[in-house]
Amino acid sequence: MDNLISRTRAAVWHPCTQMKQLETAPPLAIARGEGAWLIDVDGRRYLDAVSSWWVNLFGHCNPRINAAITDQLGRIEHVMLAGATHEPVVALSERLAALTGLGHAFYGSDGASATEIALKMSAHYWRNVGQPGKNGFISLQNGYHGETVGALSVTDIPLFKATYEPLLRHTVQVPTPDARLAGPGESAEAYALRCADALEAHLAAHADETAAFIVEPLVQGAAGMAMYHPAYLTRVRELCDQYKVHLIADEIAVGFGRTGTMFACEQASHPPPDPLPSREGERSPSPLRGEGWGEGECSQNRVSRVADFICLSKGITGGYLPLSAVLTTDDVYAAFYGDATARGFLHSHSYTGNPLACRAALAVLDIFEHDNVIAANRVKAIEFKRLMEEVAAHTRARHFRHLGMIWAFDVADATPGFSARFHQAALAQGVFMRPIGGTVYVMPPYVTSADEMRGLADAILACLSDPEI
Ligand SMILES: *Cc1c(COP(=O)(O)O)cnc(C)c1O
């Protein structure tokens, strides 16, 4: 263990980390994984309560995903996608199109590259249709879309952005519909619609210079699992139609079942019966839908009715391999089709459409289908929510919220360093968690059992009961 820690400190530059802190808080030295568990080099086990940065869906070392990748390894590991194609990328594109109603998948290697692709594609579309002035972007306050220079330009998390501000392109942020910010007595829905009015005011003045509005549907993950009412998405879709601006759904974190539907923006056209909590202390009613929310029920219309572009990554390969995809409408695709090379979409990554990653993604879609995962998760989430009741009622917990397979709350008395202290205390309880500021969240792999969830809730309660944390 010590050996691996000293070697990592000497050779690896860890992401989102002040390396000096590794002196006092060494990273876990992971040797293997098993279902929802991470196992370190000394054999200690930690429940992966954040799905390894939100990517894992069906557990570590999943036999079915392992088998698909192993099979592909014996065929072709990679071939460039310019001038060549292959079965896994074609099959995956067909299935993603069938699921979203958006055809022609363009591939990147991670989430940030999907954001870059969607932004470039949107601006290039407007250029191709004779409106090159429409090249500006709007995003939400506290939004997160990745950290490469273009993606960071539409991200609004000061810690990640401020230092690099001189490198970035100017973009516009509009008020976030985060339900925690609703006024006294104001419902989450009313607040969301008030925020949509602010977007409209901006569009009314600047639609001519705006290419797209990019948004994380229903949950702003990096903002601290901020949740908002789906009426916001329904309304901003109308506004984007009215003002002729693209709507980019960044489903990198929330896609693939995280919010209770295959894609979060499916919930826009059918707002849930119960609103999110609007005020301090109110509990979130169950966001679980009644009948008619099965995967089979025409998810494609519900996605393409809301989004002009959808960005997918993270869960797409079940947390196995880096892969992202941007899907868009036939209208956008057609605007690039023609004789001139420069009219085509000029973007490439060496590993575009990697066959191993595509096979992992196909195995993930097979699991969704064969195990009826969306419906099974709905039942599981009802049970998990009950297991989290004591956490929700804890005196230190505020704004307890839940959607699909995400649970979160804010710690009322969190002081600087809370996140790091909670992280360490949770490790001592055998749980791997990383609170965002004073927000504690749980985003478990879908294979997590009720017993594992009970242990997780107990670990959170133990951490909360320590006044030093
Ligand atoms: C994680 C994330 C990204 C960036 O993905 P990377 O693979 O980390 O580059 C973009 N948007 C959202 C909503 C994310 O959660």
Which helices and strands appear, and what pairs or packs with what?
Blueprint: H1 2-11, E1 30-34, E2 37-40, E3 45-48, H2 51-54, H3 63-73, H4 87-100, E4 103-108, H5 111-128, E5 136-140, H6 149-154, H7 158-161, E6 172-174, H8 188-206, E7 210-215, E8 219-220, E9 226-227, H9 231-243, E10 246-250, H10 299-304, E11 309-312, E12 324-328, H11 330-336, H12 355-370, H13 373-387, H14 389-392, E13 397-403, E14 406-411, H15 418-428, E15 431-432, E16 439-442, H16 450-464
Parallel strand pairs: 3-15, 5-6, 5-7, 7-10, 10-11
Antiparallel strand pairs: 1-2, 2-3, 4-12, 8-9, 11-12, 13-14, 14-16
This protein binds pyridoxal-5'-phosphate (PLP).
The site of pyridoxal-5'-phosphate has 14 residues, from helix 5.
CATH architecture of the largest domain: 3-Layer(aba) Sandwich
Q: Which stretches of 5+ consecutive residues score pLDDT under 50? A: 271-297
Quaternary structure classification: single chain
Number of helices: 16
